[in-house]
Amino acid sequence: MITGEMHHTFGVFFPLSFLFLVSPCSGGNILVYPVDGSHWINMKVLVEELHAKGHKMTVIRPSNSWYIKENSPLYTSITIKLEEDFKNVFDLYLEEQIRVQREGASLLSFFRLNNQFMTMFTQAHGFWCDVAKKVLEDKKLVKQLIDSKYDLVLTDPFTGSGVILAKYLNLPVVFNVRWITRGEGHFFMAPSPLSYIPVPGSGLTDKMDFIQRIKNMFFYSIIKFQEDKVLLIYDELCNKHIEGGCSIVSLLQQADIWLFRSDFVFDFPRPTMPNMVYIGGFQCKPAEPLPADLEKFVQSSGEHGVIIMSLGALVNGLPNDITDEIATVFSKMPQKVIWRHTGDRPSTLGNNTLIVDWMPQKDLLGHPQVKVFVAHGGTNGVQEAIYHGVPVLGIPLFFDQYDNLLRLQERGAGKIIQLADLNSHSFEKGLKDLLHDSSYRENIQRLSRLHKDKPISPMEDCIFWIEYVIRHKGARHLISEAYKMPWYSYHSLDVLLLLLAVLMVLLYSIYAVFRCLCCRRKRKTKPKQN
Amino acid sequence: MITGEMHHTFGVFFPLSFLFLVSPCSGGNILVYPVDGSHWINMKVLVEELHAKGHKMTVIRPSNSWYIKENSPLYTSITIKLEEDFKNVFDLYLEEQIRVQREGASLLSFFRLNNQFMTMFTQAHGFWCDVAKKVLEDKKLVKQLIDSKYDLVLTDPFTGSGVILAKYLNLPVVFNVRWITRGEGHFFMAPSPLSYIPVPGSGLTDKMDFIQRIKNMFFYSIIKFQEDKVLLIYDELCNKHIEGGCSIVSLLQQADIWLFRSDFVFDFPRPTMPNMVYIGGFQCKPAEPLPADLEKFVQSSGEHGVIIMSLGALVNGLPNDITDEIATVFSKMPQKVIWRHTGDRPSTLGNNTLIVDWMPQKDLLGHPQVKVFVAHGGTNGVQEAIYHGVPVLGIPLFFDQYDNLLRLQERGAGKIIQLADLNSHSFEKGLKDLLHDSSYRENIQRLSRLHKDKPISPMEDCIFWIEYVIRHKGARHLISEAYKMPWYSYHSLDVLLLLLAVLMVLLYSIYAVFRCLCCRRKRKTKPKQN
């Protein structure tokens, strides 16, 4: 029998070192084509690890990048000069999204939110295409890229630019991926039956009744339509710069390895492909000791423990009416509270609540005194909550955040409060549920055990497969033939149409023969009657 | 840059020990429900490894088993008394298959072969169902099985019996699988587009033109029809013994982990599922030194090297006319030959050819002097050829052998000679091609490097996932919702039908409104004209 102790021994990833005692692979030359914003945060984690393993990297960045620094000890950068600034558009979008959501959920607000999203989104892709165009049209830069003899392109296919450049340079491709333009990566790669695979944004799970499956189909149609529109600008780029032309979708499907920022402890199980590697939680690390003053504050919470709250780096702050309600609830709790908050100081703040600009989130989540994590549901935060086993009270703001939190809620490891429903009553109830119903903690700790019980850690998987592509100059043998086919051949519609035609001809022939026989009989019998 | 030396360093699996330094998981209590014959050969490899890791096993076997011994230091056995003997039927089937194939390929011979197969096959499943019935109807034995509190059932779902027993005992299930009744395992589990996934027995690859895709659809229909017929007897068993009844297919789809005896170095890439673990080549081990006399014989081959030939354990021997032709060709070659052959001694045997009853196949394949492997294409042999990087001249006899060899041939790592085309001329040409065209050796050595370049070895994967299921009492979170749905819901046909109906009503309404309007107009205009 397996003892509890053994469980525990296993519930920790193997040390990163073991793999590379056997595989001292170093010195790869990698061209990194990232996406800015929160996408860069996780790409940077990978860049850091690759750098530590001795790989050389060149990062392509726009001159007005938000987060991607020009000078870094981790990489050499290639800066593409751009005039437009996208940050204002984005900030305005975020504010608008919060405002519309506060007005309550309705079909009208759904279309308004969707419309805002598509406007911002189309601008973003236009901006990313501009970067790619400037790279591809700069003959000197292109020559420099060719001469650099990179081993592979590491890119986030949320923009299609990286994969187009890779094709142009004839280099293998590794994706650090979860989203592709408008959709979720799997929908481009693996068959995805809509009967049990919820479309992002639909608010559905993998258990759907008939009405929900109709809703899912409806969401899929909208997303597919919008996606196809966005992909057009990348198709143009392909047709202009890739010899013989091609579609961006076929380029995406040809990538050698997909490092997928998810796993099936977090996400619902669904079909996958041989070159998809699940690296969900690759950014998570064990907690380190807190700074002395924070540790003192945390310890002062005694038996009640600590609640921590953070709504991520993107949003500057919730409207004051909301933060005041939240602060009131916090002030009534026996717990201590650490709240990462950058807006106005709430007027109702209690003595038990510490407001901070920044907090060591992973170290707090890994602290045994921390009981609940109030979060917006960004992938990083949710993965860290799973890793450290802390239940989440989720306040989703935009993008995939509701869907991320829904996955926790479905497994009884968290609760969601929508912005429209957020008030002191719902917030207090949510907090108390999570604090007093032990099942939430038990469930997320079970997820944590499952997440950590892997033959090798997600980060080791990343490094292994990137070095694999370097060693074998790609991973063509893992790529299916699907990308070479038009959609009607892929779905065997041409074959079925032919078989249907043959069947029709056959049936018609039988009918014709019978009719002919009947006619003759009639003709034969008629004279007798007359 | 990665050096050749590093390649080499990596091209060896990590030592089996590393995993279990961290995971000293032992003492699982496993109920093994195997399939006899060649299926037991690879199940036994797994049983040996599990035994070495300290797991306790109980094996269910029929009293007249061919290979599964009653007394073994590896396991306790439960013997089910059976009268019928299936061995004679099987041997007769093999002889008949060889005879019909020698007559040449035609549509008639295809149907004759298929008919022979289905007759033998239906009998086999009837036999396996008898075993399951006897277990389930023996109240004393069932109580003993319940009292034993097994952690899981390890079974080969080539027969559906193991999974039915597991459901009855309410135990998690791990499969050691490639074939399920009539079909390949993937077709039961993962979406399998027929546009690029060849149906076993079709002789097709993943690159198909229009006509080949029609052929593939045709083969799929035949196999599906025959499969459904075979599955009926298991459905009966389910409905009789499982509370509330269920279909055997849904039981198969609910298995916790599928240890799949293939990988995508060997097989064509295709959609897969989160609980499918690819263990192709798990039975392969590095070569050990040959016995002194054999080593002396091998060394005596000098620069020309050695050819080895074996057509597996199932077949007693090819017809004498064939073996004579083969022996003639061998006698003319400058190489030495080691031939595992149990039939009559060929009259034309040369001095360079050593006939043996048994040979240390893996140790020979791993010997640098061995240049070509003449084989029937059984999974074990093909996987060993890939592991050791020796090109294969294949003479497929039955079952999956042609398909296995086709995968090597497609990658330029082997050649196939069909029984109908086998004569001294074709055999000599085949041998010489493989010996003198270095691309065959280069290609299979590339496959060997790819096969060995994995984060952990296939056998470690087996042990990891079996112990994972023990630790977590199953792996429910990796099983998709698909198995709960009727086929029309799974394919969203009900949703599409509704949408079609709505569309029709809508179109008809528009038509009706227009007709109404037109009528009015007519009525209005008519009087004026008149």
UniProtKB/TrEMBL annotation, chains A, B:
Residues 1-27 form the signal peptide. It catalyses: glucuronate acceptor + UDP-alpha-D-glucuronate = acceptor beta-D-glucuronoside + UDP + H(+). Its main location: membrane. GO terms for cellular component: membrane. It is found in: Membrane. GO terms for molecular function: glucuronosyltransferase activity. It comes from the Eukaryota. This is UDP-glucuronosyltransferase.
